[in-house]
Design goal:
Elements: H1 9-40, H2 44-47, H3 62-68, H4 71-103, H5 110-122, H6 127-136, H7 154-164, H8 169-177, H9 182-193, H10 195-211, H11 214-219, H12 229-238, H13 243-252, H14 259-290
Helix pairs in contact: 1-14, 3-13, 3-14, 4-7, 4-10, 4-12, 8-9, 10-14, 12-14
């Protein structure tokens, strides 16, 4: 029997300090979210007095009613859902297809392509050349501005390639004996056995698509009906564009809402779906980071 090693007093104090530090970091991370939620559930007129930190003082759902009654946020939510679904599917398929070609050892110039692709991860043309390219492609104020530029990522390609290289060679050989060509091999053999990495990349890109607001700010300038929910939130918070929602609330719901309370409710509505989904999807992110890191 092995005796358990007792921690010294110094080690115990060190562990206690680490636990305390972790609790402080968790508090500093979560409290701003809790503060926004509490103020979104409180009467806007009452919140102007201040002093609301932990629980609503005058509970109300009028702020959320003002947000939901705004047709702009409903349209923006639909655009966000559409671009997240379509963009994620096309991104995963296109990136996986290119990565499968990169994983083939018989690909001529593979090392050169990898070097060129790695350079693009470090250097890029910048915002102005990108904007001019998007304009020349006639993607300004176009839904596909969210889809086409994001169809490929070299970082995701590296993750795919690391996974594809670990697949048993016997699977491909058996499929080729049965007469399968490269396309059939990719669709019917490689993709079905690569669901872990496919799910990982889909989650990476799906979360990015949901949270992206910059494309809507830069490339959607005329047709505001194409702006996603995060761009809508940006314009509400950064540009103080809550007058219409407050006016509608004052006329049809209640006079308890204010510009600041509507901002709080808007932030909760736009971020709640991904916040609720992330804890269930976190294990896929961890698995994605571990892909290709363990050999043997």
């Amino acid at each position: 029997m092995f005796a358990l090693k007792r921690k010294t007093r110094g080690e115990a104090v060190f562990d206690g300090v680490n636990v305390l530090l972790m609790l402080v970091i968790c508090f500093l991370t979560l409290y701003p979210v809790w503060y926004v939620l509490v103020n979104s559930l409180n009467s806007g007129q009452d919140a102007m007095r201040g002093g609301i930190y932990w629980l609503p003082r005058v509970f109300t759902l009028d702020n959320y009613a003002a947000v939901v009654d705004n047709p702009g946020i409903v349209t923006a939510m639909g655009i966000t859902v559409a671009k997240t679904l379509v963009g994620t599917v096309l991104h995963v398929f296109f990136t996986a297809m290119v990565a499968y070609a990169f994983s083939r050892r018989e690909l001529i110039g593979r090392n050169l392509y990898m070097i060129l692709g790695t350079v693009t991860m470090i250097f890029n043309g910048g915002l102005i050349p990108t904007f001019l390219l998007i304009r020349d492609l006639q993607l300004l104020d176009n839904f596909f501005v969210y889809i086409i530029p994001a169809m490929f990522s070299f970082f995701d390609l590296i993750i795919f390639v690391s996974f594809f290289r670990e697949l048993p060679q016997g699977l491909e050989e058996a499929a080729k004996i049965d007469g399968a060509n490269d396309l059939v091999l990719f669709l019917r053999v490689v993709i079905p056995v690569s669901l872990p990495v496919v799910a990982t990349i889909a989650l990476f890109h799906g979360v990015w698509q949901w949270n992206d607001y910059f494309a809507g700010v830069i490339y959607i300038t005329q047709n505001t009906e194409l702006q996603p929910i995060q761009t809508f939130l940006y314009r509400v918070v950064a540009q103080n564009d809550t007058s219409q929602m407050v006016t509608a609330a004052a006329g049809g719901i209640t006079k308890s809402v204010t510009s600041n309370s509507v901002k709080m409710a808007t932030m909760v509505v736009t971020t709640l779906p991904i916040v609720l989904a992330y804890p269930f999807l976190q294990r896929y992110f961890v698995k994605g980071l571990m892909i290709g890191s363990i050999k043997g």
